[in-house]
Amino acid sequence: MEIPALDVQLKTLPDSPGVYQYFDKNGKILYVGKAKNLKKRVTSYFTKRHDSHRIGVMVKKIHEIRHIVVSSETDALLLENNLIKKLQPRFNVMLKDDKTYPWICIKNERFPRVFPTRRLVKDGSEYYGPFTSFKTVNTLLDLIKGLYKLRTCNYDLAEDKIRENKFKVCLEYHLGNCMGPCEGYQGEAEYNRNIDHIRQIVKGNFKDSLSQFREQMQEHAANMEFEDAQRIKNKIEVLENYQSRSTVVNPKINNVDVFSVISDEGYGYVNFLQLMHGSIIRSHTIEMKKKLDETDEELLELGITEIRQRFNSKSPEIYVPFKVDAGDEVKVTVPKLGDKRKIVELSERNAKYYRQERFKQMKIVDPDRHVNRVMAQMKEDLRLSVEPRHIECFDNSNIQGTNPVAACVVFKNGKPSKKDYRKFNIKTVEGPNDFASMEEVVFRRYKRLLNEGEELPQLIIVDGGKGQLGSGVKALETLGLRGKIAIVGIAKRLEELFYPGDPIPLYLDKRSETLKIIQQLRDEAHRFGITFHRNKRSKSALNTELESIKGIGEKTVVELLKSFRSLKRVKEASEKSLADVVGSAKAKIVYDYYHSESSE
Description:
With 600 residues, the chain is of the alpha+beta class. It folds into 5 domains: 6-87, GIY-YIG endonuclease; 103-244, no CATH class; 256-363, no CATH class; 374-537, Nucleotidyltransferase, domain 5 (2-Layer Sandwich); 545-596, Orthogonal Bundle (DNA polymerase, domain 1), CATH 1.10.150. The protein contains 20 helices and 19 strands. Strands 12, 13, 14, 15, 16, 17, 18 and 19 form an 8-stranded mixed β-sheet that branches. It has a 5-stranded mixed β-sheet with strand order 9-8-7-10-11. The protein has a 3-stranded antiparallel β-sheet with strand order 2-1-3. The longest helix has 29 residues, at 513-541. The mean pLDDT is 82.
């Protein structure tokens, strides 16, 4: 796929958190960065003046922008760290060393210790994280130590050594921070139950721990120990607001390829995430043109083969959203829960964003291709004989039958054509009768187009259900246009589409572009009609007693009300005050009118 120009790439970036990567014209990586909002952050490189010479040089070399969308700013921070260490970009100065984010380790030993670390040692120990700061780790460990009494010594507490009294309890035991397993004062089963609770805490399952904290807080409060109660309350708030897990990194996910697919009527978009040692080291999405109306399963199988060959991937396992045939040498996993499922969802999110960006780029670079695709899709979805290049939508507007009006909005090639919008005052209908009003405006609209020899639409949409649709059809029959122009009605409640003579409505996919364009048409007709109706209602509201005075016109009424703010003040004003606003002749007419009224 040809790389779009930089300005096109910038215009189509998402407003989501993620990591961005800059590449030069030779495909060599220049820089990796994180962003809370990718569009704002990346655009700032090209719109701001840079004080740093290094950044200025880098911006001149940028040829391509790639990005990975993640769930949160924390995930972006962690992923940025992983990619910088893996790719070693030339213009990244920070994070290139071997320093990494902290983890919480539950040691693989009898009576396990729980402690923070920056190093992952493959000795069977459990590691949870990573965390973005040691402050977070220490807060969590303080909570754990406040709830559970754990040993901190590094003794080898083998059963025979404890039996032979090899160890003596230390100061931690006397301070009440340890139960003394080294002398057999605490059993292994009880200690391991505490470790199981700690596992739940570091996994983010705080339900049991929170209930115990609340019991402690209430107990302290009942004993008038308010400082201790406040301390426990602070811990509860930290736990409730704390997000312990990252979907980006999990040490148990190692040497795995993740694939997902998003498709539309013409193309499939396959995303690939490569994970090594629990970290994402590569993200790539390809666009595949459908040739034989392939299913998502077929597209994903083709994409997996192509991507693994392109990147020479030898990963023995792949994660996918549904079962596919990837050959006998690869284990295929369809995750349902947990971090494995989250990483598949992350891949799907990136495929979705890539598809949206391609649509945006297409609109900018090749608008005709986008319009042709949408029109072809609308023709298929709405079961039309021709593409609906010219669509008109009608909507009635009135309040309990007062000031009835109607609006007609026009879309050409899927976009509003505002110069062709028309508004109608209802002339032949009295009272609130939507059906008769619809028949009147449809008849008037197309009778005029026929008389003037203007172009007729390929599709008419009426806002309403079967009744309004029937009225529109009746007007077309009177004009001899029934069958020559397609007409449908859209009901507001469930977005049902009704066709003449068909009692069963059509339901479109809520995400389809066809439904979105029809909704836009309906909403635009409603907006245009309501605006016209409000203006008409406001104008009629100005028909005050002043306008009934002979010799006083609308302009004079507006001037008087603008100056005096109410009819009462106009009545009470002196002739001189009135003359200052509208002149002596009209002031005398108004003054005499009200004074003669009052004298009578």
